[in-house]
Amino acid sequence: MFRAALRNADLFWVILFCVVFLPEAACGSADADSCHEVKTAYMMRQIGPVELVPDTPGTDESLRICVHPGPSCCTSKMEDSYMMAVRSETQQKMRSYSFELKYLIAGHTKAYQETFESLVSFTSNLTSTLFDSAYSALASDCRPLVFQLFSDIKRHLSGDANSSLDKTVRRFYNDLFPLVYRRLLNPGFGHMSPQSYSSLPSSHDDCLRMTRQDVSPFGPHPHLLVSSLSRALGVGRALSRLLRLAGEVVNATEKATLSRECGRGLVRMQYCSHCRGMTLIRPCTGLCVNVMRGCLVGVSELGEPWGSLVVLLQRLAATLATSSNHNSMELALLAVRNQVNDAILHAQLHGSFPLKGSKGDKSRSLKKLSREFQGSVQRYQWFFSELPEMLCESEMEVEQHTCWSGQDVVESYAGRVVGSSLKAQRENPEMTVRNTDPVLKGAKQKLEELTQVNITL
C-alpha cells in the first residue's frame, strides 16, 4: 500500500489538472504546436522556474541528454533542472525505503544500551552493598573502585574497541589489595586512624599493587572473574558493535552521492519523454532496472556482506534470548558480588559463603527485546541487494501496454538487463559504470572485516 501511494502521489495533481483544465487529448499525447502539458508537469513536480519551459516546441542545439530529431519542449537549462530534480527525487525515495530499517536499528541500539546499562547499574549497586554489609571498614574507600569497575564493564559492553576486561579486573584488584591489606590482613594497620591511612605515601600503595601481582593474595578469583565475564559479555559486546556498524552502513547509503552519469541515465529514463510531450508514460521495467542498478551499484555491492551481518545479528539476539545459566549475561554480572567476596575471603584464609541477589525482571526484558529484534531484522537481510528493484516498482504501472525505452515509446524494452554487481555493470547499456562511491566502498570493507571477525560467535 505504501509503495502504491509513493508511486502515484506525484501524478495525482497532474492527472487532476489534466482532467479539469485541459482537453482530454492533451493528457495522452503531445500537441505538436504546444508545450502546455509539459509546462504543467514541470510546475506540478516543482522542477524549477516554469519560465524555462517554452510555449511551443523548438530546437535547442545545446541539448546533451534528451537529443532526438525534431522539435522539443526541452532546453539545456531544463535538462539541468531535471538533473537536479531527479537526483534529489531518487535520494528521497532511497531514504523513504530505508526509513523503517534505520528506525529499527537505531531503536534497538538504544534499547539494548539502556538494558545493558540497567543491568550494570543494578549489579554495581548490589556489589557495593557487599562492602556496606560485610566489610564496613572498606566501604567508603571501595565504593569508587566498584563504580570504576562497572563503568569499565559498561564501556566494554558498548563495544568500545579499546576496552579490555583483563585490564579492568586487574586494575580493580590491584587497587583493592592495599585497602584489604591495611584494614583486614595486617593487624598493625588496624589501630591507625583514617587520617593516618591517607598520610601514607602513594609509593606504599604502588608497592602493594606490585606485591599483589607476585603473591596473588586473591587466589584464582580474579582470573575466574575475567573468564566468566568474557564468556558471558562477549555476545552483548559483539551485538553492540555490529548494531553500531549496521547504523553506519544505513547512514552511508543515505549520504552516498549519485554520479553525474547516473543523473543523465535518470533524466533519460524519467524526463526525456516529457521533451516529446509525453508526461504520463512510464519507463520500461528493463530500462529502470538497468539505470537503478547502475546508479546504486555501490549499494548493491553491500548486499552480500550486509546479509551476513543480518545473520550474525539474528544469531547474537537468539543467544541472548535463550542463554543458559552457563553463559547468561545477567547471572555473570550478578556473580561479580560473590566473586569479589570470595576473593577477599581467600585473602583472609577463610571459607567462602556465597551471597545471593535478586535478578528482578532484567533477564526477562533482555530476552523479550532480543526475540523481538531477531524477528524484525530478518526481513531486511537482502534489503540492499533488492533496493534498485524496489525503487523501480514505484515507477511501474500494473496495466501498461507501452513504455518509454529512454529514446522512444515501445511495447517492450529491447536492451539487455545486466546484473547488479560492479563486474556486471561494465556491460550496462544505459550508462558507463567504472567504480563505486568511496563512502560505500569503505562501508563494504568494514562490513566484511567485522562480520568475518564475529563469524565464529
Automatic annotation (TrEMBL):
<comment type="similarity">
    <text>Belongs to the glypican family.</text>
</comment>
<keyword id="KW-0732">Signal</keyword>
<dbReference type="GO" id="GO:1905475">
    <property type="term" value="P:regulation of protein localization to membrane"/>
</dbReference>
<dbReference type="Pfam" id="PF01153">
    <property type="entry name" value="Glypican"/>
</dbReference>
<dbReference type="GO" id="GO:0098552">
    <property type="term" value="C:side of membrane"/>
</dbReference>
<keyword id="KW-0449">Lipoprotein</keyword>
<dbReference type="GO" id="GO:0090263">
    <property type="term" value="P:positive regulation of canonical Wnt signaling pathway"/>
</dbReference>
<keyword id="KW-0654">Proteoglycan</keyword>
<dbReference type="InterPro" id="IPR001863">
    <property type="entry name" value="Glypican"/>
</dbReference>
<comment type="function">
    <text>Cell surface proteoglycan.</text>
</comment>
<dbReference type="GO" id="GO:0016477">
    <property type="term" value="P:cell migration"/>
</dbReference>
<keyword id="KW-0325">Glycoprotein</keyword>
<keyword id="KW-0336">GPI-anchor</keyword>
<protein>
    <submittedName>
        <fullName>Glypican 5b</fullName>
    </submittedName>
</protein>
<feature type="signal peptide">
    <location>
        <begin position="1"/>
        <end position="32"/>
    </location>
</feature>
<keyword id="KW-0472">Membrane</keyword>
<dbReference type="GO" id="GO:0005576">
    <property type="term" value="C:extracellular region"/>
</dbReference>
<dbReference type="GO" id="GO:0005886">
    <property type="term" value="C:plasma membrane"/>
</dbReference>
<dbReference type="GO" id="GO:0009986">
    <property type="term" value="C:cell surface"/>
</dbReference>
<keyword id="KW-1003">Cell membrane</keyword>
<keyword id="KW-0357">Heparan sulfate</keyword>
